[in-house]
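Quick review question:
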């Protein structure tokens, strides 16, 4: 029985190094490889294995039986299979806008993939106020291809149901159902928020019965709307960027859910960068310039998504009734409505709930941080309640600008 072929155990750096040597046909026999654990996410362990001699490197990602952030979350290591399989599928659908997977190992619950160390995590880069002019174009190609081409409008319905089965992901979905759709909307003991923000959340969100009813409807839609094979956690910490290139990773929350969930996550996390820029860039011109780029990016993502979605629909739809007059507009309109709602949910949960974002918590000036948090919370409410009317890029950005002008 081999060390890695018998029974699962959680690897340390030395184990991962041995694993790469003995289980992966990637490095030459004379390679001098090193290993470093570089994971900083909430759930997994990520090892970078490098051979300085040949300059070759790869990443091994291993899932543990509980979340890294807290033992409270018991999460099946099967998420590692889900992630490696969806990355392979998305690689084909999106023409390489995700890292290449080399091997999945169902015993060690790990997979080896392309090392993207030349890239930066997008959240970190945005908080350093860097611009990525091609991002809107690249991410909308990823979104349209992965969301439309996995839907009933395009693929055979029996094949689609097989995919629904393969990507059933109850534990990770439960995390989202709790952390995104439930806990931010009451005084939950797991929430973590500043006392002043808590008062604001209580009077503006927790006491608003109309808002609570909408969040209940949205939670049930998330649980029941098997529309597209979604990434499920598409925030800017799940995206690698280079000046000219974008790669989406960390897809372990993938399942068949509402398409708007992914688009909404991208937009909400750009709004966090926008509020980071508002609070931390002191020079007026520089601030206007950077916020201007983020505005354009948000507007372009919504409008380019709609444009590319319509074009791909005309080219790829196979379902007869989907071609009836008016159906495309109805279908896309619903995705945009869901997008707006998810922008609202993500804005609230990252301020109130357990999992925060560095864009906001790194704002050192406490008054500015509280202002940013209040802007996110009031905008959250608008994105949820007015979702029926928020359909174009300009509509999305107007919500933020209107709320910002009140503070
Ligand atoms: C327990 S996991 C907390 C959060 O981290 C992940 O990236 C997801 O966003 C999840 O909600
Ligand atoms: Mg993640």
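Suggested answer, residue by residue:
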């Amino acid at each position: 029985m081999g060390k890695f072929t018998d029974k699962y155990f959680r690897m340390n750096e030395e184990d991962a190094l041995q694993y790469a040597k003995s289980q992966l046909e990637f490095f030459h026999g004379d390679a001098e490889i090193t290993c470093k654990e570089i994971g900083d996410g909430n759930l997994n362990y990520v090892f970078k294995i490098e051979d300085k001699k040949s300059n070759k490197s790869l990443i091994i990602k291993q899932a543990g039986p509980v979340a890294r952030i807290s033992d409270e979350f018991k999460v099946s290591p099967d998420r590692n299979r889900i992630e490696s399989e969806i990355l392979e599928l998305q690689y084909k659908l999106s023409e390489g806008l995700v890292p290449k997977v080399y091997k999945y190992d169902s015993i060690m619950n790990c997979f080896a993939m392309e090392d993207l160390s030349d890239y930066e995590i997008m959240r970190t880069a945005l908080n350093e106020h860097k611009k990525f002019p091609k991002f809107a174009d690249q991410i909308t190609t990823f979104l349209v291809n992965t969301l439309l081409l996995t839907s009933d409008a395009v693929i055979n319905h029996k094949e689609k149901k097989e995919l629904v089965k393969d990507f059933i992901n109850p534990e990770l979905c439960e995390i989202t159902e709790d952390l995104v759709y439930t806990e931010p909307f009451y005084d939950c003991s797991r929430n973590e928020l500043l006392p002043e923000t808590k008062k604001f959340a209580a009077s503006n969100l927790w006491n608003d019965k109309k808002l609570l009813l909408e969040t209940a409807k949205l939670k049930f839609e998330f649980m029941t709307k098997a529309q597209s094979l979604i990434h499920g956690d598409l925030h800017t910490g799940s995206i690698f960027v280079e000046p000219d290139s974008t790669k989406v990773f960390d897809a372990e929350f993938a399942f068949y859910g509402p398409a708007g969930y992914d688009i909404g996550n991208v937009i909400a996390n750009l709004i966090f960068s926008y509020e980071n820029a508002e609070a931390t860039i002191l020079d007026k011109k520089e601030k206007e310039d950077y916020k201007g780029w983020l505005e354009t990016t948000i507007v372009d993502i919504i409008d380019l998504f709609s444009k590319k979605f319509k074009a791909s629909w005309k080219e790829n739809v196979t379902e007869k009734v989907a071609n009836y007059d008016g159906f495309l507009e109805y279908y896309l309109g619903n995705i945009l409505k869901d997008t707006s709602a998810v922008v609202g949910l993500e804005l609230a949960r990252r301020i109130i709930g357990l999992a925060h974002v560095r864009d906001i918590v790194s704002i050192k000036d406490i008054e500015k941080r509280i202002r940013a948090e209040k802007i996110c919370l009031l905008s959250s409410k608008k994105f949820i309640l007015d979702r029926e009317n928020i359909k174009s890029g300009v509509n999305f950005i107007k919500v933020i600008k209107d709320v910002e002008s009140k503070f």
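Why it works: Strands lie at 33-37, 45-51, 56-62, 101-105, 110-114, 120-121, 228-230, 239-242, 245-248, 255-257. The CA atoms of residues 337 and 388 lie 6 Å apart.
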